[in-house]
Amino acid sequence: MDGPGSHVLAAFGLSEPAVRLAGGQGETWRSGDVVLKRADAEAAWRADVLDALPESGDFRVPRPVRAREGEWVALGWEATELLAGATDVSRQDDVLTAAAAFHEAVADLPRPSFLETRRDPWADGDRVAWREQSADGSPAYVDLVGPLAAAWRPVELRSQLAHGDLPGNVMFADGLPPAIIDWPVYWRPPSWAAAVAVADALCWYAATPDLAARWAHLPEWGQMLVRALIYRLTTDELAGGAATWTEARRAAYAPVIELAVSYAA
Asked: What is the pLDDT of residues 53-91, one digit of tens each?
């Protein structure tokens, strides 16, 4: 993907050449102390929220940078301040602690209307996990999701703004609070966001089952793990179909599914 041209840099009052950053799926660029990426339909809303969040000693967020005309989005691009730090997927307890503080800070904000119309494998996978939508799938998907569907039961938890992809999106720097970046917005209980992070860490980042045990005090923990895994499995199925289910991928999910079902029993 092409980076921001000189006209985009000028729109944000930037003079240094844009350099592609590692991470961000190759779609994030730096000019001086400002990070730029192509704006999505949620960019202006997200900028309003992050701009208004009070400073916290428990977490940082990338503050948005206005274009010279005063808007959050210019020529299809958005900008934020560059934050110090690097991700560390071995520090999932610290990720979850920072996320809890972040979720508390946004707990009283209203549900954004764009969530009603968002359509992609992640949004649809989330709806399937909460039985707001149905999904058929390949035999491998049906086999994996079956025990989770059997363990699923209704819960009564308050939903709020939540970060749906935490493990690789929290940065650490010496002497500074963790920084929460790249916020995919969901309207779910905070314990669901924690369960997604734990499930991801168990499947992909070499976490051990004691991570799930340390966070089992969260509300409806077993049911949140069930939903987290249905969400991830369904998203994988919708994004990749039957070809997704290599032996290695099935093997990564299988013990975590068994663990979630044990908590939901």
From this structure: 999 999 999 999 999 999 999 999 999 999 999 999 999
Q: Name 110's Cβ contacts closer than 8 Å, sequence gap at least 6.
A: none
For 188, the 3-state DSSP assignment is strand
The structure tokens listed for 53 are 């969040």
CB 100 within 8 A of CB 163: no
Beta carbons of 256 and 197 less than 8 angstroms apart: no
Residue-wise DSSP of 118-155: --SHHHHHHHHHTTSS-----HHHHHHHHHHHHH----
Burial of 249 (0-12, 13-18, 19+ CB in 10 A): middle
Q: Report all structural domains of the chain as residue ranges with CATH numbers, in order of start.
A: 6-83 (3.30.200), 92-264 (3.90.1200)
| pLDDT, tens digit, 9 for 90 and up, residues 139-180 | 999 999 999 999 999 999 999 999 999 999 999 999 999 999
CA distance 170 to 190: 16
C-alpha neighbours within 13 Å on the C-beta side of residue 232: 29
> To which H or E segment does residue 52 belong?
helix 43-52
pTM of the model: 0.95
